[in-house]
Amino acid sequence: MDDLVSFERFMREALYHPEKGYYAQRIRGIGRRGDFSTWATLDGSLARAVAAWIRGRGIRNVIEVGAGDGSLARAVLSNLGWRRWWNVRYHIVEVSAPLREAQNKVLKGYGVEWHESPEQALQKLNGQASIFSNELPDAFPCRVFEKSASGWMEVYVSANKGVSQECLQSCILPDSTVFEYEFRSGSRVEVHESYKQWLDAFAPEWRSGEMLTIDYGDTIPRLYHRRPTGTLRAYLAHQVLTGMEILDSPGTRDLTADVNFSDLEKWGGELGWQTLDQGTLREFFQHWTPQFLIPAGFQDAAVAFRFIEQRAAS
């Protein structure tokens, strides 16, 4: 890594460096005993709801992007029932070698196909597929900005004798709804511009279908309400790290920031996609699986997590 890089570059190297990156080498597992947990590894209610969405939309070709350890995919397929499962072609896009290996073990015998990118999967399916993800956008490297007396500045990271420090640099602001609102001096915000670039890359290959995106976050301006220092944080063995601790020992911990769902709707609209629905995960459950109650231990998460469903440009 260079001596001075944007935080986005720092985060990309820390997570995805082929030899030293967290997702490439350091994941010890997902779940209660692993480095981090997802709803899917702790409870089956999310799989029921996603399976109901697949049935309700009459989906035949499914692409799951970033399938974790494969437990959600297995549970979704199981909840479809064997008749529906027989008529669904299930594909996974995964860039992490350790996670792909784990998925192969969990999904052995389920007829799943793996791909390196959404473009590759969509080409296989002639562009006709529905796409879903759980906790995907937050895993993309984000740019970080701080409001100064003279305007927005971008956060960069410098390394001096193995010690990482922050500094602010002038910048050209990315396409984001966050800059449409007023913030106090010293406030920080994050923009997942790399996720936008990822959407832009596969959009020409996507001809029909719906895309369901589930992640933690909110819309603007609620996302940064009472969060003047932003949402950026790190996870190490289920412990939350903030501030300068985020820069320590890159590659040994997961880095993340909450997702701006206003950006997801805006970026999709710019690609010609129609937003069908957006709201809390609780509302998603109420729509697709009203007969089931959200487990008591997941009530808060059902509000903290959101979904957005978009349809490809026709």
Describe this structure in words.
With 314 residues, the protein is an alpha/beta fold. Helix content is 31%, strand content 26%. The strands form three sheets. Strands 2, 3, 4, 5, 10, 14, 15 and 16 form an eight-stranded mixed sheet that branches. Helix 7 links the parallel strand 3 and strand 4. The radius of gyration is 19 Å and the shape is globular. It starts with a strand and ends with a strand.
User: Please, how many domains?
Assistant: 1
Tell me the Rg in angstroms. Answer: 19 Å
Count helical runs. Answer: 12
Mean pLDDT: 90
Structural class, from helix and strand content?
Answer: alpha/beta
Q: Which percent bin holds the helix content?
A: 25-40%
CATH architecture: 3-Layer(aba) Sandwich
SSE order = EHHHHEHHEHEHEEEEEHEEEEEHEHHE
* The CATH topology: Rossmann fold
How much beta, percentage-wise? 25-35%
In one word, what is the shape?
A: globular
How many individual β-strands?
Answer: 16
Specify the biggest β-sheet.
Answer: 8 strands, mixed
Instruction: Please report the distance between the alpha carbons of the first and last residues.
Output: 42 Å
The CATH class: Alpha Beta
Low-confidence stretches: none
